[in-house]
Amino acid sequence: MKRLTLKLKLTLLYTFFMLLVTCAALAILFSLSNRELLATVQDRLTHRVQNSADAVILRDNVPAVETDFYSVESDVYLSLYDETGYFLMGRIPHGFDSEPEIKDGQIVPAKEPVITCQCIRVPVLNGHTAAAFVKFKKHPDKEALIEKLVSFQGLPQTLGLPSAPGQFIQYLEEDDRPQVRLDVDFENGMGISIGRLREDTVYDWKFIGLSHNTVRGAAGGAILCAELLKAQGYIAKK
């Protein structure tokens, strides 16, 4: 086996070192962004509660609130409870109990609802990215789902309409796909790209979908609808 030259060894060592530095920097940035997001949410909650304190008034020793108390600002709901945890008034987000458990003056964190989510940040000109979650009566396996997706044929494909994509849905195996810059123009912007199909802790499966919002969703979609109406006889030549 041919030995590596000193120059090549140093190059490989330097490359490995830079990879470690890059990974460490990304980990630090991710940790800081999470802390910043949490701090922003906490500040928003604190600010909303402090600014709403004047909205709670006493009338003949009976608590009452002004109409502003019921408004939803910065995605924050306000609710008023007595010292025992009994709900008096306010707004309750869907899925939350109106009478939370209170222990030692603190609200005990609720075990429900269970939340699952995916977050995608994509500053782009064209392309809509969606995080989808699905649940089935019978739990299908991954291969069966992918096969159903890529083999799907809609009415535009069956009729062979001029603007219809030959393959409506493509599935991408890579862990970082679909990406807007790489996949938004699939089938001239009329196709759908799906990837990152994974099992979920609450639903059965979750995946990422990508479509071209101005081609598939607007101009091209409108033309395809017109072609379908013509093919089905709703639009006739006068």
Any key phrases for this structure?
alpha+beta; Dihydrodipicolinate Reductase, domain 2; four-stranded mixed β-sheet; two-stranded antiparallel ribbon; extended
**Order of the strands making up the biggest sheet:** 7-10-9-8
Q: Summarize the main sheet.
A: 4 strands, mixed
Low-confidence stretches: none
Find the CATH superfamily of the domain at 128-231.
Dihydrodipicolinate Reductase, domain 2
Secondary structure tally, helices:
5
Please name the CATH architecture of the domain at 128-231: 2-Layer Sandwich
The helical percent reads 25-40%
Q: How does the overall form come out from the CA principal axes? A: extended
CATH topology of the domain at 128-231: Dihydrodipicolinate Reductase, domain 2
Q: What is the CA-atom radius of gyration, in angstroms? A: 27 Å
Tell how many strands the DSSP assignment holds: 10
Estimated structural class: alpha+beta
What is the CATH level 1 assignment of the domain at 128-231? Alpha Beta
Q: What percentage of amino acids are in beta strands? A: 15-25%
Head-to-tail CA distance between termini: 80 Å
Oligomer: single chain
Query: Roughly what is the average pLDDT, rounded to an integer?
Result: 83
**Topology as a string of helices (H) and strands (E):** HEEEEEEEHHEHEEH
